[in-house]
Amino acid sequence: MTSSDVADDASSPANRREILSAAFTLSAAIGVIGFVFGVGVISAGGTVAHACVMSLLVFTGASQFSAVSVIASGGTTGAALGGAMLLAARNTVYGLAMSRYIEGSLPKRLVAAQLTIDETTAMATAQDRPEEKRYAFWATGIALFLCWNTGGLIGALVGGSINPETYGLDVAFPAAYVAMVLPHLRHRRGLIAGALGAAICVVLIPFTPVGVPILCAAAAILVGLPPPADPDDIPTEGLPR
Amino acid sequence: MTWTLVLWLAAGAYAFKFLGLVVIGSRPLPSPLERCLDLVPAALLSALVITNTFAIGKDLVIDARLAGVAVAIVAASRRAPFVVVVFLAAATTALLRQVT
């Protein structure tokens, strides 16, 4: 984050504290999951360098886990790559959604692209005002990037394992997404898109490769196509509280 | 685990992000598309909640995760702080796994 991001930021300190505390909560969970990833790479026959380079350059957890689990179960590089790519494709949609809020020079946007994942998009879009969205995006992105990579390095070095499920850490993510999605469901089209996305996903899970259901759930955004009958129903800036 | 996999995945993952945020996202978008993009979080986050709650690979299962997520829904709709929502959910699931 540059100093100008902070200087332009008109959001109240209370909001920023709230954003930061949420970003740190997520990052703590991500650090532990990153650790588990590091351990996984080693047990799949990879090296510390594989784990670190993957976390630094790929930086999209679901894809990384999927690739490593395919390799660990004896799959080919092609199979590992295919599944991981399907999971990574949704970041294009996130990038589109975030592009209206991420401003600045090309290098800055190139860095922002690397940070465009589930958690950063969710945190950013849960905020009311554009400057808060930007703040949440960068704060969450930087905190996650540091924790994910540190966790991965330690996991790969230590090699031993803790089971995140013992502490319910696997549920930290759906719980976080619940908190972030609720504001989006408080207007009618958001609610329809949410319900439709969930329905598409649940129907496809048993029949399609992992990653495809979430990708197909994006079709639910098409409910936004017809012009709004009630102009108040589509909040473009600031969701109703 | 090979460097071919690591580097191709890195290139592919970044290409997806780059395509959305920089290539397409840099131009002005028609307003119907803008209206659709406003709905991305609603649609995709709901789908992520579903997979993280019910899916194990391609199987749909009901287990201790559901209790945690249900607690999260109650806590979040009562506007509990984010940290509290996540903590309560994780604690509920962890506790249930201890007991069962």
Describe the structure.
- The complex is a heterodimer of chains A (241) and B (100).
- Chain A contains 12 helices and no strands.
- Chain A has helices at residues 3-8, 13-43, 48-57, 61-72, 77-88, 90-99, 106-114, 118-125, 130-158, 172-181, 188-204, 212-217.
- Chain A is globular and about 55 Å long.
- The two termini of chain A are 28 Å apart.
- In chain B, a hairpin with a 2-residue loop joins strand 1 (55-56) and strand 2 (59-60).
- Chain B is extended, with a radius of gyration of 19 Å.
- The two termini of chain B are 36 Å apart.
- The model of chain B has no long low-confidence stretch (mean pLDDT 93).
- Chains A and B meet through helix 2, helix 3, helix 4, helix 5 and helix 6 of A and helix 1, helix 2, helix 3, strand 2 and helix 4 of B.
Question: What layout of secondary structure does this protein have?
Answer:
The complex is a heterodimer of chains A (241) and B (100).
Chain A lengths: L2 H6 L4 H31 L4 H10 L3 H12 L4 H12 L1 H10 L6 H9 L3 H8 L4 H29 L13 H10 L6 H17 L7 H6 L24
Helix pairs in contact in A: 2-3, 2-4, 2-9, 3-9, 4-5, 6-8, 8-9
Chain B lengths: L2 H22 L6 H7 L2 H15 E2 L2 E2 L3 H14 L4 H18 L1
Helix pairs in contact in B: 4-5
Features:
heterodimer; A: 241 residues; mainly alpha; globular; disordered N terminus; B: 100 residues; two-stranded antiparallel ribbon; extended
